[in-house]
Specification:
Blueprint lengths: L9 E3 L5 H7 L6 E6 L4 H16 L5 E6 L4 H6 L7 E6 L2 E7 L4 H9 L21 H14 L4 H13 L3 H9 L3 H4 L2 H15 L6 H10 L4 H13 L3 H14 L7 H12 L3 H15 L1
Parallel strand pairs: 1-3, 2-3
Antiparallel strand pairs: 2-4, 4-5
Helix pairs in contact: 5-6, 6-7, 6-9, 7-9, 9-13, 10-11, 11-12, 12-13, 12-14
C-alpha cells in the first residue's frame, strides 16, 4: 500500500519530509493524509479508493500516505486513535477529516465539499453512486461497531447518523454514553447543538403557523425563535439565521440572550463555511 510512481500525486509521508511536502506544499495544493498500517484490513479497502480518486482529481489534491507503525510520531501529532484515519490539510492547517473506511460515494461527497477536479481529469471514469441514506449509514455503522466494539469514535459517528435519520432519542442516548475523551469532540458538540434545536421545536406550531404569527406580530420573539429553528432544521439555513439576527438586533436580552445563543449553536451545525462566515460578521456588527 506504499505510494508508487504509478500515480505522481501519491507520496509517502515521513518526519523528514512532513514540513515541506505537507505543510508548505498545502499552501499551493491541498494534501489528503491517509494514516494506515499493513495489518489494517479496512485500510486495504480505503487506500486504493483514495488513490483512484487522486488520479481522477488530476492534481487538485495530493495524497500523502503515513504508515503509523513506521511513523508513530506523526500519528501522535495528529492524535490518531484508530486507522484508517484521513485528514485534509490546506494552507498549512487541518481543514477536515474522517475515521474509518467510508464507501466510495461518501468519499466523493467528502472531497466535493472542499475540492473540484482540475481540467483534464478523466471524468468518464467517475462512477455515480446513489448517496448513502441516513438509515443505510446507521446500518453500516452498527455493523462496523459489532466488528470493532473498541472503536468508540464509531459510536459518535453512529449517534450523528441516528440524528440525521430522525432518531433523536436514540442519538441522545448514544451521545450520553460516549467516553469522556469524545464528549468534547467537535462532532459531539455539533450533535449536542442539533439535539437541542430538535428538542426546541418538539410539539411547536407548524412552519406555516409560525410564519403567520411573525407576519401578524413582528415582535413575537418566541414565534421568531421557533420559526428560525424550524427553517434551520428544514435546510433553509439563511432564512433561519435571519430570524435569530432579528431577535439579536431588536430584543438582544430576550430570554437571556436567546438570539445570540441560537446563532452560535446554529453555526456549529452548518457545513457552509461561507454562509457561517457571513452571518458571524453580521452578528459581530450587532454586538460590537
Amino acid at each position: 500500500m506504499s505510494a508508487t510512481i504509478a500515480n505522481p500525486h501519491v507520496f509517502d509521508v515521513a518526519e523528514d519530509n512532513f514540513e515541506t511536502e505537507v505543510l508548505q506544499a498545502s499552501l499551493n495544493t491541498p494534501v489528503l493524509i491517509d494514516f494506515w498500517a499493513s495489518w489494517c484490513e479496512p485500510c486495504k479497502t480505503l487506500g486504493p479508493m483514495l488513490e483512484k480518486l487522486t488520479a481522477e482529481y488530476n492534481g487538485a489534491f495530493r495524497l500523502g500516505k503515513v504508515d503509523v507503525d513506521q511513523h508513530q510520531q506523526l500519528a501522535g501529532m495528529f492524535g490518531i486513535r484508530s486507522i484508517p484515519t484521513v485528514m485534509l490539510v490546506k494552507d498549512g492547517q487541518v481543514l477536515d477529516g474522517f475515521a474509518g473506511a467510508l464507501p466510495e460515494g461518501k468519499l466523493r461527497e467528502f472531497l466535493s465539499r472542499h475540492l473540484q477536479p482540475l481540467e483534464g481529469a478523466p471524468v468518464d471514469e467517475v462512477i455515480e453512486e446513489a448517496p448513502e441514506s441516513p438509515e443505510q449509514a446507521v446500518e453500516r455503522l452498527q455493523q462496523a461497531i459489532a466488528a470493532e466494539p473498541e472503536r468508540h469514535e464509531l459510536k459518535l459517528d453512529l449517534a450523528l447518523a441516528q440524528m440525521r435519520a430522525g432518531h433523536v432519542d436514540t442519538a441522545e442516548a448514544g451521545l450520553a454514553a460516549l467516553p469522556v475523551n469524545l464528549a468534547t469532540d467537535a462532532r459531539a458538540v455539533r450533535l449536542r447543538n442539533q439535539l437541542e434545536l430538535a428538542r426546541a421545536v418538539h410539539g411547536a406550531p407548524s412552519l406555516s403557523e409560525l410564519h403567520q404569527r411573525v407576519q401578524t406580530d413582528g415582535n413575537d420573539w418566541q414565534a421568531r425563535d421557533l420559526l428560525g429553528v424550524r427553517l434551520l432544521l428544514e435546510d433553509d439555513a439563511a432564512a433561519g439565521l435571519d430570524q435569530f439576527l432579528a431577535i439579536l438586533q431588536h430584543a438582544r436580552d430576550w430570554n437571556d440572550g436567546q438570539g445570540k445563543k441560537r446563532l452560535l449553536a446554529a453555526f456549529s451545525t452548518l457545513d457552509d463555511a461561507e454562509l457561517v462566515g457571513r452571518y458571524r460578521r453580521r452578528m459581530a456588527s450587532l454586538l460590537f
